[in-house]
């Protein structure tokens, strides 16, 4: 029973399907093909076959095909009218090989929908609305494609400079938006037409390698010629790991580029193609791959777009026809106007429906993503896939909103990749530099090394650390300098030239980041900060003199001063002896002395002179007017001499501590005896020449006016001129090189503060994709302190012999012990002389005591020395004691006292007698004689 029921339902279903097939409305469609377009024809047939196989699809399509032998407008018109006479409800084609739009015009006049699937030179909007109202093109418009390329090149890749190679006018139209990219250099975009070099394509690539100085190329050519063009470009080293190519033809992947790709073909090539809808993972896979499956698998644009055009028309026609009560077939004539008939109305409705359909409204699905037709019958919305044609690896997706979304490559795809990506292997960078201490130098024993091992310096260590972080190899290229810009030829030399020519990938040295250089090369983040300062010569300090206190006066002044002291002393003695006021009574208690005493003998006079000049005074002073006048003049002389000496002593003892009068750039430009200059054509000279600061501009004008020229051809020459000039030349240079030279030469110094702020960076060609990685690596080295260690290693002179001099320079105005050593020597000498004189006086007193007390000299010396060492005894006996008995000591004391008194009385009598005689003598000569009574 159950088997019978199942059989009944199956039979009923078959009958209903056959009945529906019989009720399907037949719709005729026509297509025009050129010769050798078998893939298009297969796609056309496969699409309608797939639609006709859909059981529930209400329409059944019958196809008519015509073939064009050549591009003949008359033949094309005849074939089109022949298809219309067969009653076709749609016209497909032809491709862009047709040079005119006769099919679109016939379709517009008859009302037959016209489906296009290839690029054509676009007409204006007015023409589309007037003469192409029945035409619908599922191929992206050239303007939309051009905008997509602009988004990819400008926004995603950020290419500022590139060269465009194009093969046809249509290809140039696809690139029209790229012409409008505003770049910093007017020569950034260069155009080359490939067909102009058809006789020898090698000439084109030679120009690109030697004259264009380019590393980014945009190539628009047919897939058939792509391999030959790139093979020839490889001979001129245009396909290296640092050259980048962008292929604009949507069928570049269909070329045989994958077959010639090998390890020597390390090219960074990317292309674009229409993004296809992802396959349904649950769809049943075919066990037998047909020819049309291979065509669709190759993702060739025209067959895929032909398929989408068929799907679009079939779904729109079904929606319109089944909605009508009665289907009215199209007219079978091209010349409807002659018979007064209007165009086919159903055709207009079908075209309108095609403009409203989206990819979610059709069955089966479109091959390409994001299918949408605008009101003018053009496809302005679509998706592009950015990929590597060498390994067929997708990279990103461009959408009509301008966004570029990267694609994450699945590990399964990477593991299944048959062709390895040789462009991702470890790169070898050419690092261009020049000899400059301490950045790049030859080792002292470089003859014993080969290759890069014979070089050393800051740049060598820095590039080595970067290579370890970024995993790349490198070779050095040595040039003559950083690079100067020729204002006449507008050309660079040195490091900048090699980077512009793309002969090197990284430039490293004392390369300052400037606005002018950034127009031609890119820079990484700075790896060193610096400024500008003045390098000047530092003279050796004069040797310190132990008798520096004598320098305020010349030798003859000291001689004259000693002679003056001697002469004034003798004159003072003479004047005191002739002055009556300087003779005085030696015994003031005796009112009538027999003699007068004069205290101003030679020793006392010399003591007064010395005390005066030392400003210490004296315990005896003159009494008479002439003597006081003489002493006053001497005191005035001593005051002037002492004041002059004090002032000159301070000046002479601090003369070695005084710095140069040039302490800043302003001091330098306000004097005329020291010339100054800078490295000609370098960033320092550019700083002064372009500055708006008054002092900097004045300094620049002075540097230009010096004869002979104050400019140098290198920093090394400038440092040498400072050494040889010995204070007659100053060199303006960057503080890094300045500090390096100061650290190694004690005769060089920095004067003034730092001027401005500059930075050193690594230079790379414009738009280099590895610049960001270099910047990130430099930041990592900075954060780890590696950059500081490198600078300390190559700038700090650990064998510096100038430290003592530097410490002496930092002492200020203090006087050292050497300069005041003579004062201590004079003090010591005076002490020694005083001690010698004291010892002699002590021995003389011992001899006198021995004679007077009738003892041996040894006893007298012993007794006097013992008493002198007893510091606690404050009274000294007149005579020494033997220590035997007190009576003897007292008797000796009594006899000594008596003898002393007798001697004193005897001396007093003689004194009285002499004074009396002197007084009488004076009276007899000086005044009138008086009687004894008076």
UniProtKB/TrEMBL annotation:
Enumerate the spans annotated as Ionotropic glutamate receptor L-glutamate and glycine-binding domain: 438-501
* Membrane protein topology class: Multi-pass membrane protein
**Positions of transmembrane segments:** 520-537, 557-578, 633-653, 823-844
Specify residue ranges for compositional bias: Basic residues: 904-926
Under the heading InterPro entries, the entry gives: ANF_lig-bd_rcpt, Glu/Gly-bd, Iono_Glu_rcpt_met, Ionotropic_Glu_rcpt, Iontro_rcpt_C, Peripla_BP_I
Give the superkingdom in one word: Eukaryota
Site entry (Crucial to convey clamshell closure to channel opening), positions: 662
Q: What is the protein's given name?
A: Glutamate receptor ionotropic, kainate 2 isoform X1
Organism this protein belongs to = Glossina fuscipes
UniProt lineage = Eukaryota, Metazoa, Ecdysozoa, Arthropoda, Hexapoda
Q: Which gene specifies this protein's sequence?
A: LOC119633314
């Amino acid at each position: 029973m159950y088997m019978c029921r199942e059989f009944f339902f199956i039979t009923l279903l078959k009958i209903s399907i056959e009945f529906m097939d019989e009720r399907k409305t037949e719709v005729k469609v026509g297509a025009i093909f050129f010769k050798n377009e078998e893939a298009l024809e297969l796609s056309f047939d496969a699409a309608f076959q797939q639609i006709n196989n859909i059981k529930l699809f209400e329409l059944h399509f019958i196809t008519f095909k015509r073939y064009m032998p050549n591009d003949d407008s008359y033949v094309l018109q005849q074939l089109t009218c022949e298809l219309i006479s067969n009653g076709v409800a749609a016209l497909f084609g032809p491709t862009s090989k047709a040079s005119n739009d006769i099919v679109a015009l016939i379709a517009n006049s008859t009302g037959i929908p016209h489906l296009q699937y290839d690029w054509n030179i676009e007409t204006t909007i007015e023409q589309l609305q007037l003469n192409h109202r029945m035409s619908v093109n599922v191929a992206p418009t050239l303007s939309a494609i051009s905008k997509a390329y602009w988004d990819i090149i400008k926004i995603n890749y950020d290419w500022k400079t590139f060269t465009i190679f194009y093969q046809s006018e249509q290809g140039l139209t696809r690139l029209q938006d790229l012409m409008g990219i505003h770049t910093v250099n007017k020569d950034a975009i260069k155009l080359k037409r490939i067909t102009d070099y058809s006789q020898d394509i090698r000439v084109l690539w030679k120009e690109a390698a030697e004259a264009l100085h380019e590393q980014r190329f945009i190539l628009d050519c047919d897939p058939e010629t792509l391999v030959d063009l790139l093979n020839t470009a490889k001979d001129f080293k245009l396909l290296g790991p640092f050259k980048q190519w962008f292929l604009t033809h949507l069928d570049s992947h269909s070329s045989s580029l994958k077959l010639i790709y090998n390890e020597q073909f390390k090219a960074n090539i990317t292309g674009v193609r229409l993004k296809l809808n992802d396959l349904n993972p649950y769809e049943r896979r075919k066990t037998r791959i047909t020819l049309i499956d291979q065509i669709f698998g190759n993702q060739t644009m025209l067959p895929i777009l032909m398929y989408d055009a068929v799907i679009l028309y079939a779904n729109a026609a079904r929606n319109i026809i089944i909605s009508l009560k009665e289907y009215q077939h199209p007219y079978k004539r091209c010349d409807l106007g002659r018979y007064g008939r209007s165009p086919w109305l159903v055709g207009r409705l079908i075209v309108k429906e095609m403009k409203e359909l989206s990819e979610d409204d059709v069955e089966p699905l479109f091959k390409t993503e994001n299918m949408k037709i605008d009101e003018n019958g053009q496809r302005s919305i679509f998706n592009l896939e950015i990929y590597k044609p060498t390994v067929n690896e997708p990279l990103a997706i461009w959408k009509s909103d301008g966004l570029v979304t990267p694609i994450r490559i699945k590990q399964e795809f990477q593991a299944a990749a048959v062709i390895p990506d040789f462009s991702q292997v470890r790169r070898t960078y050419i690092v261009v530099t020049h000899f400059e201490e301490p950045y790049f130098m030859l080792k002292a024993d470089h003859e014993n090394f080969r290759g890069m091992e014979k070089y050393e310096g800051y740049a060598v260590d820095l590039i080595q650390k970067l290579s370890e972080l970024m995993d790349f190899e490198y070779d050095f290229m040595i040039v003559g300098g950083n690079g100067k810009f020729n204002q006449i030829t507008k050309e660079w030399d040195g490091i900048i030239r090699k980077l512009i020519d793309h002969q090197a990938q990284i430039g490293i040295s004392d390369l300052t980041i400037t606005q002018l250089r950034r127009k031609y090369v890119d820079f990484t983040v700075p790896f060193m900060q610096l400024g500008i300062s003045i390098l000047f010569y530092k003279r050796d300090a004069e040797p310190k003199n132990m008798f520096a206190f004598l320098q305020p006066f010349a030798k003859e002044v000291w001689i004259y001063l000693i002679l003056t002291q001697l002469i004034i002393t003798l004159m003072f003695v003479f004047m005191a002896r002739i002055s009556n006021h300087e003779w005085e009574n030696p015994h003031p208690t005796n009112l009538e002395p027999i003699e007068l005493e004069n205290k101003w003998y030679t020793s006392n006079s010399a003591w007064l002179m010395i005390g005066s000049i030392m400003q210490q005074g004296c315990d005896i002073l003159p009494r008479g007017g002439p003597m006081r006048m003489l002493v006053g003049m001497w005191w005035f002389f001593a005051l002037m001499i002492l004041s002059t000496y004090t002032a000159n002593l301070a000046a002479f003892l601090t003369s070695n501590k005084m710095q140069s009068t040039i302490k800043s750039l302003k001091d330098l430009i306000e004097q005329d005896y020291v010339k100054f200059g800078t490295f000609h054509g370098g960033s320092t000279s550019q700083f002064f020449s372009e500055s708006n600061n008054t002092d900097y501009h004045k300094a620049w004008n002075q540097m230009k006016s010096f004869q002979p020229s104050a400019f140098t051809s290198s920093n090394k020459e400038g440092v040498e001129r400072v050494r040889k000039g010995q204070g007659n030349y100053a060199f303006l240079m960057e503080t890094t090189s300045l500090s390096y030279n100061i650290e190694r030469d004690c005769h060089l110094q920095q004067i003034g503060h730092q001027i401005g702020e500059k930075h050193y960076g690594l230079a790379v060609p414009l738009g280099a994709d590895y610049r960001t990685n270099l910047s990130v690596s430099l930041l990592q080295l900075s954060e780890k302190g590696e950059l500081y260690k490198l600078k300390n290693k190559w700038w700090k002179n650990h064998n510096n012999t100038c430290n003592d001099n530097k410490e002496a320079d930092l002492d200020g105005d203090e006087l050292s012990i050497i300069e005041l050593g003579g004062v201590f020597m004079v003090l010591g000498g005076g002490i020694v002389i005083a001690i010698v004189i004291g010892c002699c006086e002590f021995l003389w007193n011992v001899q006198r005591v021995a004679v007077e007390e009738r003892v041996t000299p040894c006893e007298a010396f012993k007794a006097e020395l013992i008493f002198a060492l007893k510091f606690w005894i404050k009274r000294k006996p007149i005579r020494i004691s033997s220590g035997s008995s007190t009576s003897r000591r007292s008797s000796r004391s009594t006899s000594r006292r008596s003898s002393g008194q007798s001697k004193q009385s005897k001396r007093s009598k003689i004194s009285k007698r002499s004074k009396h005689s002197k007084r009488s003598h004076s009276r007899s000569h000086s005044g009138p004689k008086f009687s004894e009574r008076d």
